[in-house]
Structure formats: C-alpha cells, structure tokens
Amino acid sequence: VKDLLRNASITLGEAYMDKKIEVSGSLQVLINSAYESANSFLNNNKFKRFLPKQSHSEESSKNDVQSHYDLGNDFYKLWLDKTMTYSCAYFEKPDDSLE
Predict the structure, then answer these.
(1) With CB atoms 3.0 to 4.6 Å apart as the test, which of 8, 17, 59, 64 could cross-link to 35 if both were Cys?
(2) In this protein, which residues make up the domain named DUF7884 (predicted)?
(3) How many CB atoms are closer than 10 A to CB 10?
(4) In degrees to the nearest 10, what's the CA dihedral of 41, 21, 32, 49?
C-alpha cells in the first residue's frame, strides 16, 4: 500500500506486468483513478502523520540534478543512441527488440 501511495502508476504497472493483478477495462483509467485517490488521501491532514517525512531539500535536489547533467554529452554518447534519448520500456518477452 505504501508503494501505491508513493507512486500509483509504477506500482500498478509493475503489478500488472508481474500478473499480480488482473484488470478488466483500461489500465490507464485504473492508474489515473488510483493516482487521484492517493492524492486525495495524502492531502487529508489526518493521514499525513503516518507517512514518512521527505528528507529532500531544495539544495540536495539541486545537487542530485547537477551530478547527472554536469557530466556532459561525451558520457551519454557512450551508451545512448544517436538521438541521445533516454527512456524506459516494458517488454513482454526477454527477446523483444527496441526496434
């Protein structure tokens, strides 16, 4: 449940891929509904005290971002394609291709 509250789309997507849940109808509608419900739940002050406190500050977030983007294109050219695109994908079978 904690994972669902923190990131509904990833938690539901992975549960669906791992065949832990079965969805009749649109998976996207389910994800959107879960996301909206989680936001309603999290915005209710009665429940906020049960959730872990965020340890991120603006300064630590800035440092995290800089550590990735200050590397320069030469690093990313080592493992990205010619379009320099970084993305995520889910595959049905291990031998599915990106092409």
Answers:
(1) 8
(2) 1-46
(3) 13
(4) 20
Alpha helices in the chain (DSSP H): 2-6, 8-17, 27-42, 45-48, 58-69, 73-77
**In this structure, what token pair is assigned to residue 11?**
């938690």
Helix (H, G, I), strand (E, B) or coil at 51: coil
- Amino acid identity at 12: L
What six digits make up the tokens of 86?
């970084």
Which residue, chain included where needed, has tokens 């009665």? 46
pLDDT, one tens digit per residue, over 68-81 is 778 888 888 898 88
Does the structure show a pLDDT above 70 at 18?
yes
Label residue 89 by pLDDT band (50, 70, 90). confident
Q: Is the torsion defined by CA of 18, 23, 28, 30 positive or negative?
A: negative
What's residue 49's pLDDT?
60
What distance, in Å, lies between the first and last C-alpha atoms of the chain? 36
